[in-house]
């Protein structure tokens, strides 16, 4: 008997029977553009082996102008078809199924050749698009249908037509981007003509059997977005035109509402799929912030959907379904929705990977082979770097002892989990603890390790982390100065606070200080109010016309930095704007270009500019130091003095801008070599 009877039950789409109801959602990994198709095949085959019911590839361009960026991968030639065949054969050899997503970016294409229904530039691209004429529209439809035919020739079990997220087909649907007055614009019937025609032509090109997924935008989250009646009308028309299943899309890329970040409530948009399901006769797939088998199972059991799409969770753990089916759900490495190694990489032109699983997209290069000679390995520090080293080394057959002076594992991850909106970090610490336990690692907690304790080990790994940096601001007696550690551990803080340092931790601390009561991440209704999300059956595009209604801040907070630039500029590429917007909504006063003069019981005295002649008082009850960290190297220095060879990783190695992504990656790579 399984805990996930719905998730693990088969489903037939068109003529294809899938072994379960999990869909690995489309993600652009950048692997195709490396030209190493063996690597692409290994990435997808690992997920097929791990039990994915149906894999959808990253978006493939139907033609050059539709590519997300110049040189984006597609299926343009026989050589491309042969490359893609390597992928489909590898997936089929593992008993999986795979569909190719056809993604025409329209005005989102990062290219001067981009095309769109109307010549309206998107706010997230520097390139104004060219308005297509009748002939141009026909050329795009034909290209999409041809790409679908080639996909099936390459062995794909079907295609997904990307109709959401504000891409080309979505751009025809709404007046926000479609100002045409011909048969492709004006009335809704005209505006939906293109997506429906695309589906009809793709189905005609494919014949009856291959799966045709249409990804439909259920809530646009942009001004003048679709109404619910329009969404339903499109869903019915697309079904009629030959789609075999509808996948859910949430929000356009230009929307100013987070849709997949870690602060978005789990399954926070599944109610929309649930509402669509009774309107159509074909299966529907739900999506967004679903990262655990129990959440997927609940949604299916409640009838919210017929299948569940998870994308990033398949980066975090390639064996998601195999572990769920084998009673090992706790061993599934959780996607914490941080975007740090996946979307942030994609949008910086780097290869995708995963913070919790550095092997993602590096399957052929980072390989954990059995150790030739099992060694005794000591790892000091049970933060992310130390835990990852221990788990990978033990998995390779080494005998590992993991020490920490604290009486629990997790290190700084335990602090992150205290931040409202970062609740997923609890799951990450739990996963590490489960894996440490399952790997037979000897845990020595509550032990301050001395150099003598490390005698007799073949390998010593120092992962002692960081200590908070003292910014050296003069402090008068009677002032209240706290570190971020005090605050995140729950120290009492007065109603007016200045935060010194506006890095990732300064932002986290500010978010903690302004939040009162239940975290909106744990209450979808509250979260929607905070971000101004309404129901698309009430307001066009699901945007509350009155805008966001943030709850009042719990405190008055100043967030400061010395650099004369906008605070938060160096936060994650895809998430920084969310943190900045959250704090702005809570009226946090963010300032750059600040000199810290002194701290007194009255507050923090600051000045601006090199002259430092005009000093002003920020009247606050407490100053919280978030001024970065220094490596904790006491033990490492002692080992060096004694000439004892050791490896130093994570924050103990380099503290500057250290984060868990770098720590875990460095740890995994070291442990793979030990
Ligand atoms: P950080 O990002 O390096 O920021 C340190 C802050 O302290 C900066 O704002 C810096 O700005 C200030 N600072 C540095 N030296 C100072 C000094 N001597 N006196 C006063 N201010 C000083 O470090 P962090 O905030 O501690 O974060 C550590 C790591 O964890 C970072 O890599 C961060 O990205 C990561 N993290 C990430 C997230 C996330 O959401 N992805 C969240 C939390 C932490 P000025 O020099 O301009 O004053
Ligand atoms: Fe999830 Fe973060 Fe990994 Fe991306 S990097 S897959 S968001 S855990």
Summarize the SSE layout with pairings:
Layout: E1 11-13, E2 16-18, E3 22-24, H1 31-34, H2 37-49, E4 54-56, H3 78-93, E5 98-102, E6 115-116, E7 130-131, H4 134-153, E8 158-163, H5 168-173, H6 188-191, H7 193-206, E9 211-219, H8 228-241, E10 245-250, H9 270-276, E11 284-286, H10 293-302, E12 307-310, H11 313-316, H12 320-325, H13 343-346, E13 376-380, H14 384-395, E14 399-404, H15 412-416, H16 424-438, E15 442-445, E16 459-462, E17 466-468, E18 481-483, H17 484-488, E19 496-500, H18 504-514, H19 524-531, E20 556-560, H20 576-585, E21 589-591, E22 594-600, E23 603-608, E24 616-619, E25 622-625, E26 629-631, H21 634-641, E27 647-648, H22 660-673
Parallel strand pairs: 3-4, 3-12, 4-5, 5-8, 6-7, 8-9, 9-10, 10-11, 11-12, 13-14, 13-16, 14-15, 16-27, 18-25, 19-20, 19-25, 20-21
Antiparallel strand pairs: 1-2, 17-26, 22-23, 23-24
Helix pairs in contact: 2-3, 4-7, 7-8, 14-16, 14-22, 18-20
